[in-house]
Amino acid sequence: MKTDTDCTFPKKMRLSSRKEIESLFSGAGSFIVGPFRVFYRAFRMKENYPAPCSMTIAVPKKHIRSAVKRNLIKRRTRESFRLHYARLLKPALTGSGTRLIFLCIYLPHEVKPFDLLETKMQVLLEHFSKMLEKGFDLSPDPAG
Questions:
Q1: Burial 74-103 (b: 16+ CB within 10 A, else e)
Q2: Using one digit for the tens of pLDDT, what is the confidence trace for 79-127?
Q3: 33: which strand partners?
Q4: Which of 78, 125, 133, 137 shows the smallest number of beta carbons within 10 Å?
Q5: Is residue 127 within 8 Å of residue 33, measured between CB atoms?
Q6: What is the pLDDT of residues 62-78, one digit of tens each?
Q7: DSSP one-letter code for 27
Q8: Which domains does the chain have, with CATH numbers?
């Protein structure tokens, strides 16, 4: 049985389009929340979009040399997003008819505990929700 508050992170919510990821670095908005630098774009939702929100996480090899630790950080970040997306951001996105794509770059040079990452992800999602309530300029769709 599916409910509106399913805590999932399906493949369709993973940002993997090269064109969309490159568009985040050219003319997209950005801000810093805790251990993350966030690049984002928002545009009008269309029927052909798989999900109202897509995200990806980057952990620079320059900061964290061990692949095991980089993957641990990515898993923790995805899990914190999965737990809080349906409650904090999804209602604002569906209410405004907006699609949001964003990239989180992990900045620290050490692995932070899950509790900190979860708290900062809640702050990040609340920040996006407040931005959507206030309204902001929607950029053209990078995928065409």
A1: bebbbbbbbebbeebbbebbeebebbbbbb
A2: 999 999 999 999 999 888 889 999 999 999 999 999 999 999 999 999 9
A3: 36
A4: 137
A5: yes
A6: 999 999 999 999 999 99
A7: S
A8: 11-133 (3.30.230.10)
